[in-house]
Amino acid sequence: MNILFLADVFGVPGRRAVEEHLPALRERYDADLAIVNGENVADGAGITPKLADKLLAAGADVVTLGNHTYRRSGIGSYLEASERVIRPANQGALTPGNGMAVVEARNGVTVAVLSLLGHLFLDTPVSPWEVVDALVEEARAAAPVVVVDFHAEATSEKVALAAWLDGRVTAVIGTHTHVQTSDARILPGRTAAITDAGMTGPHDSVIGVKSELAIARMRARLPVRFEPAEGGARLEGVVVTCTDEGRAEAIETIRVPA
Ligand SMILES: [Fe+2]
């Protein structure tokens, strides 16, 4: 079976690209399941209930989030009720929402999707290492195919988690840094991995933000208000091919347009 994963959807250009291309991409890659990281869909920071519904309506089976999950009002109660839009599982027990989704793919296979936040260089409430083993056990009890979206800053942490989970999950897909890495690989235990799947959004930018604003904040260290860029809309992500038992066979990066 094939699983299509679209990386961090950024602002209006990213959301429009998903709406325009996701149905055709599902066909092209014969995708049984589509997972979309939507944490930057609301003008580059966070997600609203309405935008989450739009991503689902565009063809996402599961929407994952990240460190900007709670930037917009109303999302907490939405996440509390949603089974398909998930926040990082290590957000802490007092934070609303679910960290795992269990859904049926088009071919009838059950898939568990886990969202986790990295610990290095991010303000993460609970270390992912403290919770990941129990979560993976829970996921594997619920589904043969397990996909982990690891939303993290440091490449070392992303490579380390993929190695730790090798042989126990189908794929560990890195998100958050918005620059697609060239290390898509199948690990010895048949787990697919990539350090970062990229960004679905405006690529004429500094990871989604208007370049001049990002540069101004870095140069002068002034509190410049960020705005999403507009040009160079591109979808990025990966397609993971695996057996119905959850063993990865291939991982291919995608970039549309190339
Ligand atoms: Fe992020």
Kindly list the characteristics that best describe this protein:
binds fe (ii) ion, six-stranded mixed β-sheet, alpha/beta, seven-stranded mixed β-sheet, 13 strands, 258 residues, 6 helices
Q: Describe it for me?
A:
By secondary structure, the protein is of the alpha/beta class. Helices cover 27% and strands 26% of the residues. The chain is built from 6 helices and 13 strands. It has helices at 11-28, 49-57, 75-81, 128-142, 155-165, 211-220, and strands spanning 2-6, 33-37, 62-64, 85-86, 100-104, 110-117, 145-151, 171-175, 185-186, 192-194, 201-202, 233-242, 248-256. The strands form 2 sheets. Strands 1, 2, 3, 4, 11, 12 and 13 form a 7-stranded mixed sheet that branches. It has a 6-stranded mixed sheet with strand order 5-6-7-8-10-9, covered by helices on one side. The longest helix has 18 residues, at 11-28. The chain is globular, with a radius of gyration of 17 Å. Fe (ii) ion is lined by residues 39, 66-68, 151, 176. Residues 39, 66-68, 151, 176 line the site of fe (ii) ion.
- CA-based shape: globular
Average pLDDT, rounded to a whole number, is: 97
Share in helix: 25-40%
Rounded to the nearest angstrom, the radius of gyration is 17 Å
Largest sheet: 7 strands, mixed
